[in-house]
Amino acid sequence: MRRDSIFYKLFQQSPTLLFELLPELPANAEGYRFDAVAVKEPRFEIDGVFLPPGNDPLGVVYFCEVQFQKDEQLYERVFAESLLYFYRNRVQFGDWQVVIIYPSRNIEQSKLHPYRGLLDSEQVYRVYLDELGEVRSLPLWVAVMVLTTLEADRAPEEARHLLRRTRQEVSDPASRAIIELITTIMAYRFENLSRREIETMLDITLKETRVYREIKEEGREEGQRSLILRQLTRRVGELSQEVRSQVEALSLEQLEDLGEALLDFTSLDDLQNWLAENR
């Protein structure tokens, strides 16, 4: 289940959701926009950046990381990315803050001592979803975030409850956005179920919603990528991690083109030349 992409969908729908997790709400919270940015030399991709209104040179830029797997170098990367971006764009912002979202404390990296100054300061705020409280007592958007952490035997009941809450508390079009996100989460959690089975589980009609199509398209792309990697290994031998990463970064259309081209490959050089030409 790709929880990070789900969280970023949430933030795209409602950038102010981030501030519901923080102890203080910025005065200009409604003006923030969610974005993903790149920093060159070295190349960093920052998936979750909350930018203050453009007319506020003293605004705070928030960097958000959603982390559901243990990464023993997470803080090295996050602080390097954040500080470099802040350095390169210093004239646009007055301050910066990092928000790390974990399902629980046991996912956090083990060695914290080198970063104790930052971690114990107001610059960094760590959110542990399992410590926010009972899901039914949380604000609706926050409850949707916590839904991603629930055990499989409990998730369907809580998802149905959140769908009922949404219909009662939220008007269109916001309600449709929340309903789509809840069904997206459940479709990821139970990807082995058919559309009809998910509809029955949630007591809802999915139809062919945009997010449902995206999930199926993503599944088709992942299947195509796995097939291509297996075919390449048989064709040109074991692939290095660098080459595998290049293949994994290809779009679905490029993967289909590679599937045809690899029939003519006789060596690893053929694959590397194709990747260089189609980068």
Give structural notes.
With 279 residues, the protein is α/β, with parallel strands linked by helices. The protein has three domains: 1-131, Trna Endonuclease, Chain: A, domain 1; 133-207, no CATH class; 213-277, no CATH class. It is 47% helix and 13% strand. It has eleven helices and five strands; from the N terminus they run H-E-E-E-H-E-H-E-H-H-H-H-H-H-H-H. It has helices at 3-13, 74-88, 116-119, 140-147, 155-169, 174-189, 195-202, 210-236, 241-248, 252-261, 268-277; strands spanning 33-39, 44-51, 60-66, 95-102, 124-128. Strand 4 (95-102), helix 3 (116-119) and strand 5 (124-128) form a beta-alpha-beta unit. Helix 1 (3-13) packs antiparallel against helix 6 and helix 4 (140-147) runs antiparallel to helix 5 (155-169).
Features:
279 residues; alpha/beta; Trna Endonuclease, Chain: A, domain 1; 3 domains; 11 helices; globular
Topology:
Elements: H1 3-13, E1 33-39, E2 44-51, E3 60-66, H2 74-88, E4 95-102, H3 116-119, E5 124-128, H4 140-147, H5 155-169, H6 174-189, H7 195-202, H8 210-236, H9 241-248, H10 252-261, H11 268-277
Parallel strand pairs: 3-4, 4-5
Antiparallel strand pairs: 1-2, 2-3
Give a short overview.
It is built from eleven helices and five strands; from the N terminus they run αβββαβαβαααααααα. The chain is an alpha/beta fold. It has a five-stranded mixed beta sheet.
